[in-house]
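TL;DR need structure tokens for one chain.
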Amino acid sequence: METKWHVATAEEAFAAEQFALFGWDVSVQYGANQPEYDFVVVDGDRMLKVSVKGSRDGSWGLIQSFLKDGNYHAAAEAWCKTHSKKTVICMVQFKGIEESALPRMYLATPNEIKIRLVQTEKGRGDTILYELKEWRPKAYAAGTVDSIPKNWAFTKARLEELAIPFGGGSTQA
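>> reply
TL;DR here they are.
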């Protein structure tokens, strides 16, 4: 993948393909300004708004624009509040992927991501969600490891766990 545009195009295509493979209808937004989500997926009376985030470096910068005065926890909370209860984040990771292989993909609610972000770096918090980060000796969190929870892997079971009926409850965990 050569540019950010290539990653953005590929991330949405892979994410949409995965939902379709699991039997969900995918409806992509049209137009330049796509607030909050990239596409909607529907299965019977269940619907999710999907915001896709791609990466080729092992991490996703998610909340930098919300950071004020170094308060990572407040930034994570503010970012989380910009998403509706029917939104899920699909993270697509291209780092270390061979040309003929599929990227690693994860599904999480904004609230789950908020919790992970505030736990990062021994609870100090961060604006970046890491797939796997081993903190070096001079870091605040030296000797610790932050990673995506294993249950976030984009599987059919994970999708079923997050799916809610129209007018149903919250995907916020």
